[in-house]
Amino acid sequence: METKPEAPIAKSEMSSTEAAEFLHVTRRSVARFATEGKLASQKKGNKLFFKRSDVEDFALKRGIIQPLETEPQSRILTVAQLISTVKEEVDTLKEEINAKQQLLAEREKFLSDLQYAERR
């Protein structure tokens, strides 16, 4: 009995295994999503296949993946926010260092006074 070789999966398609890995669920869950009509599928023989775009849309709707930033402006705002946060952290650290330096100077003076008093 001769078996036909399976046709390779198109890049625009995903097997149920690939879809399950992409969605971080089991193959059984992917099959259930297909059965319930939540995720469009095609059956080829006894295997399910999914359009890559349908799987990605499903993942976006469920919050499994985040949409790509398409607006360069939003990236600039994010960088600006990061700069602001880092500046605040640097300012806070500088204040802490100044306070520690002042405390150190006070302790050194106190130590010096104690040593002077001990010698007398």
From TrEMBL:
<dbReference type="Pfam" id="PF12728">
    <property type="entry name" value="HTH_17"/>
</dbReference>
<feature type="coiled-coil region">
    <location>
        <begin position="83"/>
        <end position="120"/>
    </location>
</feature>
<protein>
    <submittedName>
        <fullName>Helix-turn-helix domain-containing protein</fullName>
    </submittedName>
</protein>
<dbReference type="InterPro" id="IPR009061">
    <property type="entry name" value="DNA-bd_dom_put_sf"/>
</dbReference>
<feature type="domain" description="Helix-turn-helix">
    <location>
        <begin position="14"/>
        <end position="62"/>
    </location>
</feature>
<keyword id="KW-0175">Coiled coil</keyword>
<dbReference type="InterPro" id="IPR041657">
    <property type="entry name" value="HTH_17"/>
</dbReference>
